[in-house]
Amino acid sequence: MARSFAPLLVSLVLLTAGSAPAAEWDGALRGTGRLMMDTNAPRDFTDRLTAAPTRDLALSLLGSAEGRGTFDRAQLVGRYELGARKYLRYIDEDTLVQSGAVESSLALGTSVGIGLEGHAKDRRGGSRSYSDLGTTAFLEYAPDAQLALRVRAGARRFVYRPDPTANFGGPELGVLGRYRFNRRHSLSVFGDWNSRGFGTAPRARPPGTGGPSGLLSGRRQDGALTAGASYTYRGPLALGVTYVFQEISSNSYGETLQRHRVSANAGIRLPWKVTLLAQGSLGLTAYPDGIYLSPEIILVEEDEGQNSLSLKLARPLTDTLDFEMSWGVWSTRLPRNDLTYTRQVFSTGFTWRY
Hints:
Strand 2 (56-70) and strand 3 (74-87) form a beta hairpin. The two termini are 27 Å apart. The protein has helices at 2-17, 295-298, and strands spanning 24-38, 56-70, 74-87, 95-107, 112-125, 130-141, 147-160, 168-180, 185-197, 221-233, 237-250, 257-270, 274-286, 307-316, 321-334, 339-353. By secondary structure, it is mainly β. Residues 1-20, 210-215 and 293-303 have low confidence and may be disordered. Helices cover 6% and strands 61% of the residues. Keywords: Signal. Residues 198-219 are annotated as: Disordered. Residues 1-22 form the signal peptide.
């Protein structure tokens, strides 16, 4: 993963080398430890005749660091997260996740800037072990504090270790626009497109076949389109609502899907310095060719299911330490075979900030 960031870091140094000799630096550290009770630790799909999944206890640790350096005309931003989850009985579901991102931007004038961005995520253990790498160059236009537009182009590489036929790579394009009506209301629109080539090993599946014996000789090729909009309100109640449409079109039969998803988050301050945070989502997914549980379909988004709801209560104990309690539920139903996925997680723990 470090090797993937090397060309980007060289470019970042070149961008900032000509800036002012002194820079303003700031950063933050954060650590969270939780004890969890998971009602579906193996993340199994079940039907009506299958016994309920066995519950398990787990310890979750998450640490993050971020920093920002501001020069005369340039800015350098970095983020890194490291998370681990250890189960008591289902040790096959133990996971270690790392993610990082580096972004450098250079102002070309009062309203135009260019930059480079690189990101990487690596997940080990559990039923989904993969690496997701990407790098992009972007052009940003921000004439005032209300409007900001960003256009980007780059490449992405995805490696799925349990099944190499799900590995893909290719170019991607994206656009993001944000308009702030005032200090409380803002609206964003976004869109991304990614061309996914699956190498020479995976073959496109022809219609009417579900096994490897009837695979076509042509290479599998997918196109992934994502578009959406979000609204944010900041006041006595913090509120955000997002709609996302995603379509993956594939020349391999059974790998095409369309997804609509609405999500919302809210936060409000309660008495006794308690903060309530809530998140929820509703999703509708259609498989025009039928459902084939390939790794690619499962890994479209790491959202634990189409529908979800989570609540968290947090109260500061000191200036840097918070006590937290949370609950979340995730669910998905496969209509053609009546399989369902349901998982609830109860947790309690502490968060330290610096």
